[in-house]
Design a protein that fits this description.
The structure is a homodimer. By secondary structure, chain A is of the alpha+beta class. The first copy, chain A, has a single domain, classed as Electron Transport, Fmn-binding Protein, Chain A (Pnp Oxidase, Chain A). Helices cover 21% and strands 34% of the residues of chain A. Chain A is built from 5 helices and 9 strands, in the order βαβββαββααβββα. The longest helix of chain A is centred in the C-terminal third of the chain and has 18 residues. The first copy, chain A, is globular. The two termini of chain A are 18 Å apart. Chains A and B meet through strand 2, strand 3, strand 5, strand 6 and helix 3 of A and strand 2, strand 3, strand 5, strand 6 and helix 3 of B. Strand 8 of chain A pairs antiparallel with strand 8 of chain B, so a sheet runs across the interface.
């Protein structure tokens, strides 16, 4: 998937503090985007910023997200509104030998562009398929199909990424040289986001079993591993089609 | 901790879509804020929204966060800049019998106010203590103390919450009545954020053991449980002092 390309860097997306943690290449940015399902989107209405959590996914350099949780925003978006979509993997809390060096390991992406509503009906219907199939490849074909009212009631937003940056800290404890000689305890405390035991709907019809395409969502697995794998599967299918 | 109070509701923080999921009382909002360590803060520079992940904590109706990761913002904040701080607990992915009813269980808070830099030196020094002790109560006293340069190099931001809303979905699969009769598999897939096995710094001095005050951060525990417990411990200590 590596295309060797990078996002342009300017005042908006340049990682200023700790610039050694900054990355702008498509490969790094996209890999982080594709291994999560939850993002936070920022937008502005009358000078007031809003930060809304939502599900999202990527196609090339275009991001999509579910617009229904952002109804305030939708009314303002048809012209395209500046937005920032951020994805964060929290990997650890870092306990150092002084307060200043306490930190966290993390991998985050901030993507900037103009958010717009998907108006084209065919693109919208395809997006509604991928909203589900990006996480659970092949699932839409197993479902009761959406009716016109449902399609109308769901808003899908897209944003072509104009600029983006990834910021990665992955070094655990990093104390000042002289502090390593102090009798103070320090550790890296890993944080994982994992999949729990699936809870089948209590109202399943007799004989209905968990379909094989959900196997990547296995108890105890890292959500990011399942998300990465399902993303690759979902888009390999689409590209062949 | 319940004070019976609520945040005022207006166009900014009213939960419009799925308004049955909205809560405005201090008890609900504060409990969600105190059981997480990572937030996303939105702010605006020259019409461009930014969404930045950072560590944060609450004191009463004031939120604090670490400003160093938002250096762009800091230059603009001394007058107070409109901001939105959002915290999201993703609790499950919900696989329904149609695409439209696919969802997620989550608990989120959006808090609105004006962000400002903590300028008062005594408040700043106390905030730098709580930045660590809010997560690891009593830890700062065990550390090499901060020097003037370190204190100067860290920026702390605060925001008095003017408006806030919590939004909670906690119902798992919720299909249309007639869809329950279809032979389609549906489940709630729980998602947990958990603490991994602590990784002691390889350069610890001989005989330095993990201190007892880190016990809440035990392998396999939910991060939110440890965060909630340590928050209560940290602020009980402060209130007694």
């Amino acid at each position: 998937m590596a295309d060797g390309q990078s996002y342009p860097v300017d005042e908006v997306n340049k990682v200023k503090r700790r610039h050694d943690r900054g990355h702008y290449d498509h490969e790094t940015v996209h890999a982080l985007l594709d291994s999560a399902v939850l993002c936070h989107v920022s937008y502005v209405i009358d000078g007031q910023p809003f930060c809304t959590p939502t599900l999202y996914w990527r196609e090339g350099t275009r991001l999509y997200w579910h617009g229904s949780s952002a109804s305030r925003m939708l009314r303002n978006l048809s012209e395209g509104e500046p937005a920032c979509l951020t994805v964060t993997h929290l990997d650890s809390l870092v306990l150092a030998r002084c307060g200043f060096n306490h930190s966290a390991d993390y991998r985050s992406v901030m993507a900037f562009g103009k958010a717009r509503i998907v108006e084209d009906q065919a693109e919208k219907e395809q997006a509604l398929v991928m909203m589900v199939d990006r996480i659970f490849p092949g699932r839409t074909a197993q479902l009761r199909q959406s009716d016109k009212q449902e399609i109308k009631a769901t808003a899908v937003i897209y944003m072509d990424i104009e600029k983006a940056s990834a910021k990665i800290r992955a070094k655990g404890v990093a104390d000042d040289d002289e502090d390593y000689l102090l009798p103070i305890y320090a550790e890296r405390l890993p944080i994982y986001t994992v999949i729990g035991k699936p809870e089948p709907c209590p109202r399943l019809m007799d004989g209905v079993a968990r379909p094989a395409n959900l196997a990547p969502y296995a108890t105890g697995r890292l959500l990011e591993e399942a998300a990465k794998e399902s993303y690759a599967a979902a888009y390999a299918v689409t590209e062949k089609a």
